[in-house]
Structure prediction request, 470 residues.
Amino acid sequence: MSTVFMPMHMRPTAGRIAYNDSILFNEMTPSELDRLDTCAMEVKYDAGEYLFRQNAKSDNVFNVISGTLAVERISSNGHKQIVCFLFPGDFFGITDADHYDVVVRCLTKTQLYKFSRKRLYSLAEVTPHLKSNIQQISARIFSRVMDQLFILGQKKAHERLCFLFVQLLERMPGARPDHIELYMSRQDIADYLGLTIETISRSLAKLKKENLIAFPTLNHLQILDLQRISEMAET
Amino acid sequence: MSTVFMPMHMRPTAGRIAYNDSILFNEMTPSELDRLDTCAMEVKYDAGEYLFRQNAKSDNVFNVISGTLAVERISSNGHKQIVCFLFPGDFFGITDADHYDVVVRCLTKTQLYKFSRKRLYSLAEVTPHLKSNIQQISARIFSRVMDQLFILGQKKAHERLCFLFVQLLERMPGARPDHIELYMSRQDIADYLGLTIETISRSLAKLKKENLIAFPTLNHLQILDLQRISEMAET
DNA sequence: CGCTACATTGACAGCGTTCAAGGTAAGTGG
DNA sequence: CCACTTACCTTGAACGCTGTCAATGTAGCG
Prediction:
């Protein structure tokens, strides 16, 4: 029996991952999952560690079990753009390029499944469900990058923050409007939204003063008026 | 004999498309090209026309023969972000999503090959070269979007313009430092770079005053100091 | 010539950055 | 338990880039 790909309800991680998990495994039979198992292993990282070094060959696909990560692009002159955050259930490394042009940093302790990309893709060739699942994930990633492109090109600071909030709500397992845990620092948020840390602070203050959000603690965000936050986030 | 996919040097369009053409056809045999022909047709549009309507099913893949196009994303409240420009040889529609979330507008008279996406993809399944070519194109498109994400998040107005210039040089067939024809309006440039038309005008004026660029006519750009322009464009 | 569409320039306001100071929370060691 | 350190966040003031509004300039076309 597969250890890594036991049915979710039988696995030790069961219940930990609330949703957007296992898109990769949708509709797959136990025997297919067993074969998927052969190209995967479980890996762990501490906060601050990187999954691979800059310009590494894109040999692996990662699936987040637990933890939060940041996909980063850093220019020669030191500017950093965070491309996206990764949450439990998310994938990284589904690409047709042979080298990563980004690095991936763990914001917290992190557990992942690590797949051999080559073997995963070969398996997909003979496993229609797997292939279609990979395509679906790929489409989602692209669509998300397009959203961010739009945000960076068109939105003001406080609107960008609202966009982030809505994204966190939708993508972080267990997030509720009255309880969103920010695992990323203010600097990370700034690097994600193309702003400075001071602007983030000030915009948060503005939204607080307007009673749209609250911060019981520094990293515990509450959305008080989801309606208006969503409107401002709109892409 | 295939009409659409005759070897380049025998076709009426030969010589028109200078480079980045035909990545799709790399390494393919004449008989494979003949089969590719069966899922393609040639289509023409006038300046200002759209290839399809918003939220259309993504049934087709387009390959630009001649002309310049803009891939646009428009929000409900009227903001427009141009995602990329398309030049001869470029592709659009290589996606795993089943609907386009953008529209494509012709900036000039345009000729394209229009492929049935479904048939193109099926053919790719049995034609390794074709499949690998499609993956290569797909990787390039993604990489380009990432470049723009970085630009929009990190760069100042005049640097964004330099980025555009370098891109035009690299991607527009026939473009030389002393002769770059701008087929897009100042407004299009603004929508591409996430700025206003006035900022574009002023930043162009600034670059002109510093003798980095010149404009013999409104839409004929010359790059006088490619070295420095490239440095500022750097991603 | 005059119309129209597009581009440039100017003045001004506002948003976001920069630089600097101050505040807060968690951890350390006396 | 409390000073001290450290890392991170917030706030303030001044500056500058970009947006906005308005006027002017320019090229193409009937």
Chain B has two domains: 8-152, 155-233. Residues 129 and 224 of chain B are 40 Å apart (CA to CA). The beta strands of chain B are 40-45, 60-66, 69-74, 80-86, 91-92, 103-106, 110-116, 180-181, 213-217, 220-223.
